[in-house]
Amino acid sequence: MLPQLAKYASVFLISMVKFVGGPLAGASLGLGFAETLGLTVAGMMTTVILLSGVGRRWVRHRQQQRRLRHEKVFSRRSRTIVRVFQRFGMPGLALFTPILFTPIGGTVVATLLGVPRPRILLHMLWSALLWGVTLTLLSDELAHWLHR
Question: What pTM, to 2 d.p., does this model score?
């Protein structure tokens, strides 16, 4: 029982930090499709829930620090992120979060840009499900191909 629990915890914790790692870990540990998908989505959504809740306070804290240090508000990187967000909105940010950003990065960006928490949760959930199914299927197929 304990080794199985360790497998589940591994997939869950990896997915909290780097989404793509969840399906790869699940396939390499021999977990089934449903187990891997569930743990991967749960890991990402746990990060999204935690950071979107704490994020507002953190944003206010960072803004206050910038004012005290007289730092520039916009950098080249932040302008690019804002431009992409203005063009594609929250659906675009959510779509690319699991593969380009991390659950942490995508949630922080959405929070910094003032997206309401329910909207962040909704868009990150469909994105996690979409990419979870896709990457889990690919990981399972890769694992079968390598074991032949």
Answer: 0.84
